[in-house]
Amino acid sequence: MKLKDINMVRLLEKYQQQVVSQLMNKFSYKNKLSVPKLQKIVVNMGIGRAIENKKLVEEASKHLSVITGQKPLITKAKKAIAGFKLRKGQHIGCKVTLRGKRMFEFLDRLISIVLPRIKDFRGLSPKAFDGRGNYTLGLTEQIVFPEINIDTVEFVQGMDITLVITGNSNAQSCELLKLLGMPFRSE
After folding, report:
1. What is the pLDDT of residue 96?
2. What is the pLDDT of residues 62-85, one digit of tens each?
């Protein structure tokens, strides 16, 4: 078994063996299926400068592919905005939707490797939930991922990472992420 396979399974096993029972005790669930779980992770790179340089979308797509291990979907503008010199159908970003074992492997790398590499990191804001239990965090640079070679990066690009969680409350989702090891700031 490869090291990557061990890491992939590690967070999933932790969820199944420890987190589910802890959430059932804390929130008085009667059924394991009603416990909130991570449904998918969406990683999105919006490239505003792609209007002037189409090569930026290709490079961002290549980096996102290396980071997630999955081919990104190129996103296009839905409507034209003259003030931004944007035409309908123009390439303006890329995104990847992760599910299953690949999702848990990405979350494990995010928690244990990427977030500690961020300069002056003091924890994630516990207020970034959307009211339905989903959590979104933003990274300002793709170079915090160890897969990206800094020497080959022509431009630094940020990304949004959205954790879509089944369930209906921010408190339950926050507790799920805390038990999985997400480093939240104490406020």
Report:
1. 94
2. 888 988 989 998 887 777 777 777
The CATH architecture to which 3-180 belongs is 2-Layer Sandwich (3.30)
Amino acid identity for residue 94 in this structure: C
Domain residue extents for the chain: 3-180
For residue 8, list its beta bridge partners.
none
Within 10 angstroms of residue 66's Cβ, the number of other Cβ atoms is 13
* CA 132-134-135 angle, 5° bins: 135
What is d(CA 53, CA 83) in angstroms, rounded to the nearest whole number? 17
What is the torsion angle, in degrees rounded to the nearest 10, for the CA atoms of residue 76, residue 79, residue 84 and residue 90?
30
Nearest-angstrom CA–CA distance, 9 and 172: 23
Q: What is the pTM of this model?
A: 0.84
Residues belonging to the chain: 187
Considering only CA atoms, which of 13, 15, 183 is closest in space to residue 113? 183
**Cβ–Cβ under 8 Å, residues 176 and 16:** no
